[in-house]
Structure prediction request, 281 residues.
Amino acid sequence: MLMASTSCHLSSLPDRPSAMEAACEHSDVCGRDALDGHDGKCRLHSEDSEKDKDEFEEALEEHREEHGPDFRWMIFPDGLSFSVFDEKALFSQAVFRKGANFSNAEFREGASFSGATFQKGVDSGPISQPSPRGMSFVTSTSFHGATFDGKAIFSDAEFEEAVSFLRTTFNGKADFWLSTFGGKVHFFKSIFENEADFTEATFEGKVNFVGGTTFKSQATFTQTEFGVENSPISGEGLRFSATFEENANFAGAIFHSDTTFEGFSPRKGNFDRCHIQAKIL
Prediction:
């Protein structure tokens, strides 16, 4: 488990830097030597599926104590639970082999998951569980080029500022049920291979589903709120220039901001009981 901080001094592990050994391929991140038989990488960056999980966690704690939340290119062999990050968390190009649990995680200075791969998906904590809240991103967050091979559960998540999903691939169900987006949201060339569920989500700022973003299965925006009544940023608008290959359900959705649907041709579109308080183009 990744803890918010650590006060104990961890003993040095065998792959600490030395003048006699080759540095890890990503030593600019970890400052470690490469391990024999690990293709020029340390235990944190090694792609070996059999690497010792206990040794990995010990090295991870030591790394965070020395280098902060910089986890770029790391290969996480086991499921992880996240806590509070006071600095920007860098997970670019990281691989999570057993999934990641974001229940109650808080990223106070934002996070970058650009190019990250979640082989077993990600979970923010099902709303049915007695959890005080989902994950929270206080500043801008990027999932540019990230791949979710399992379910991407962002239910009840809070994105206080801008969040980008550029060229993001969701191979499993994408669940944003009850999530709140406080800033601009950008889905550009993103692919939803499975169901995408934004039921009761709230988009307070500008929203774009553009650039070839494709929903290959059911897309649900039931009771989703676009813009906030009497909010100064609600007029920034919503733009759907996306491909809906199956059904698109906007039943009960609330549109406070001007909305543009370009080339909207789902197999079936449902706008029953919508509340439209702005222009729909």
